[in-house]
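[#protein-structures] MJ: dropping Phosphate regulon sensor protein PhoR here for a structure pass
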Amino acid sequence: MYEPYPVPELASEHKKFRYSSLWTFAKQDLRLLAFFLLIASLIGFGIGYFWIFIGIAFAVFFLLQLRSLYLVNDWISNRPYDVPPNLNGIWGALLFNVYRAQRQERIVQAEMVGLIDRAQSSLVALAEAVVLIDEMHQIEWWNPAAQQLLGFQELDRGRNILTILRQPSFIEYFNNLNMAPDGLKMKSSVLEDHYVQVKLTRFGGESRLLVAYDVTRMHNLEQMRKDFVDNISHELRTPLTVLSGYIETFTDQEDLNPRWKRAFDQMQAQTRRMNALVNDLLLLSRLENEKKIAKNQIIEMPSLMNQLYDDAHAYNVDYGHTLNLEIDSHCDLIGSDIELASAFSNLITNAIKYTPKGGTVTIGWHDDGEQGCFTVQDTGIGIDPKHLPRLTERFYRVDSARSRQTGGTGLGLAIVKHVLMQHQAYLEIESKENQGSLFKVIFPKERLYRVS
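AK: finished. C-alpha cells for Phosphate regulon sensor protein PhoR:
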C-alpha cells in the first residue's frame, strides 16, 4: 500500500500537487479498491464465497470513504485553521486545495490589513482634518486634526454630522454638494478668528469623505487685498472725477491749439479708461460682499433678451456686424435681473469688440429641460485654447495691446464669473484662433422658472 502524502504548511512546498489533475488522485482510490477486490477474490475463491467477499471489499472501501468524509467535515467545521488530517485520494486532494486557498486568503487579508493600517497612519499624520461619514450621515472615523480644527470628541462617534457642524452654510452645502464644487469656507467653531475650508466628496453611494484645513492666513491676506482695492478705488474716484471735469472743460474750448487738443483728447481717453477700471473694481467688491443677498427675482427672459438685442444694436453702430437673436426656450430665470443683465451685456459687447467689422454675432437663450443656456457666438478673432482656463482671472489679458485699443479693463469676465457663481451657474468657452468663439452660460434646473 502507498504512503499518504504529507499536507504542506506552505503551498509552494508541493507545487507538483498544484498542477496534478483530479485523475491522479482518483487513481489512488481506484488502486486501493482494486487491492481490496484482489484480496477478497483470492479468499472468496479459496473458501467458496466469492461474491460475499467481493461485497465485503466494497463495504470496507465505502466505510473508508465515509471515514475520510467525516474527517473532512470535522476539520472544516471545527478546526479550519489547523493543519488538515492526512488523507489519501480525492479527499486528500480536496483538503489540500481548501487548505491552500485558506492560506492564500489569509495572506491577502494580512496584506489588506497592512495596507489599511498604513493608510490610516498616513491620515492620522495629516495636518488636514479627515472625517468618514456613512450613508446615515453618522460619523464613522476621524483623525486627530479633526479634533483640533472641528472640535470632534470621542463621544461624537456615531452622531449625525449635522448635529456637530450646525452652521447654516454647512448644512446647505452638505445637502447640495454641487452648489460649491470647490468646497466651503466657514468660521471655525473651535478656534477664535480662524477659518477652515471644507470639501465633501461622495463615495460608495451616499457615504461622504470630509476634508478640512485651516485657511486663516489665506483669508486674512484675501481680506487685506479686498480692503486695499476698495480703499484705493474709492480714493481714486474723486481725483479722477476732478481731472475728467477739467480736461473736458479744456477740450470744449473752441480756440484751443490743435496740438493741445490732441493731448487733452488722449488724457480724456485715459481718464475714462481709469474711471472704468475703478468702477469695475468697485463692482467686483460689491459682488463679493453681497454673496448672501437673495437672488430670487423672476426674470422674463424674452423681455431681457430683446433689451440686450436692442442695446447690442446701439453698440454695434461703429462695427457693422450682423446681429442675430435666437430664443427657443419657454423658461424664465430666477435671479438678480440687474446683475445678470450686466453679465450678459459684458459677453455681448466683448463679442462685438473682438470681431472684425462685418462679422456675425448671435445671441441665444435655450434649455433642454434640465439646464438653461445663454449663448453668445461670434465670428471674431478667436482665442488660443491655452488661454481659456485663465480668461476669468482678474486682469488676465490674452493680448495687452489689443485690450488697450478696445478700452478693456481686464475685469469684465471676472465680474461675469462672480455673478454666475452667485446664481449657481458657470461659464463654458469654446474658441479657436481666427475661427470665432462661443460663450455659454449654464444655469441649473433650480434657476429655471417654466412659463405656463
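MJ: nice. Residues 218-289 form a domain with the Helix Hairpins fold (CATH 1.10.287.130).
AK: one more thing. The longest helix spans residues 89-125.
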